[in-house]
Design a protein that fits this description.
Layout: H1 2-26, E1 32-35, H2 43-49, E2 54-60, E3 63-69, E4 74-79, E5 82-87, E6 95-100, E7 108-112, E8 115-121, E9 124-133, E10 136-147, E11 150-158, E12 163-169, E13 172-177, E14 181-185, E15 188-193, E16 205-210, E17 213-218, E18 221-226, E19 231-237
Antiparallel strand pairs: 1-19, 2-3, 4-5, 5-6, 6-7, 8-9, 9-10, 10-11, 12-13, 13-14, 14-15, 16-17, 17-18, 18-19
Length: about 240
């Protein structure tokens, strides 16, 4: 009897382990179905490109959360005595500025270009520029330095493509560009996926559960990336 009890306990434990392992994958809502990624400029791709639904991803309480989102053309970062503000005006251009907390002081223009992200990492400030329009797609990662009221920037990584979505995972930067996916570690870039079907489907966010469950929100659905196996799967929204 005791032996049967031990086997039963082991079976339940094993079942719970498998359920926990697959939980994040299975948490993808039912109105997102796994679909073969369409070829760029195919009929299915054009349907996604013309979709009015942009889906953003994030991790909430340890689970994947998907929500409709809109393009964000402004980002900011609070620093000691003011706020860095980045603007993205698309083909009309953008800029990075510093707005002092002391309103008697003037705004400082730092850099021209479409600012996608501003962030702190290991006590330093970085920003990402990206521009995609017509046949042009460019972008880079910069370090921002400040001495008193003098701001200077230097380019660290040229992606050769426009960054669209970004997150920090462990000691890595994950960057989804207009048609590629990069991992940046120790400020060295690794091209993981090249010329992905999400070309012109505008990645907008990246959410990470673990190395096997990295999610990217795009127009018309979401993409699941496995960094260990270097694979990706597309989940199309059915609504």
């Amino acid at each position: 009897m005791k032996l049967k009890t031990k086997y039963l306990f082991f079976f339940i434990l094993l079942t719970l382990c498998f359920a926990s392992y697959g939980q994040n994958y299975q948490s993808i809502p039912k109105d997102f179905i796994e679909t073969i990624p369409p070829k760029v400029e195919s009929e299915e791709w054009y349907k996604l490109n013309n979709s009015h639904n942009e889906f953003g991803v994030k991790i909430s309480n340890g689970k994947l959360a998907i929500e409709k989102t809109k393009e964000n053309n402004k980002c900011s970062l609070k620093i000691t005595d003011g706020t860095l503000v980045g603007m993205d005006g698309g083909e009309f251009g953008g800029q990075l500025i510093f707005e002092p907390d002391d309103k008697t002081k003037s705004t400082i223009k730092i850099n021209r270009g479409n600012v996608k992200y501003i962030f702190n990492y290991k006590d330093k400030i970085y920003f990402i520029l990206g521009y995609a329009h017509m046949a042009t797609s460019t972008g880079a990662l910069y370090e921002l330095e400040r001495k008193n009221n003098d701001f200077t920037s230097k380019i660290l990584i040229d992606f050769g493509d426009a960054p669209q979505a970004f997150t920090i995972y462990k000691d890595k930067f994950l960057v989804a560009t207009f048609e590629n996916f990069f991992i940046v570690q120790d400020f060295k870039k690794e091209l993981v996926f090249e010329k992905i079907f999400w070309y012109a489907l505008y990645p907008n966010s990246i959410a990470v559960v673990d190395d096997e469950n990295v999610f990217v929100g795009i127009r018309g659905g979401i993409v699941k990336i496995d960094l260990k196996e270097k694979t990706l799967k597309f989940f199309k929204n059915t609504n």
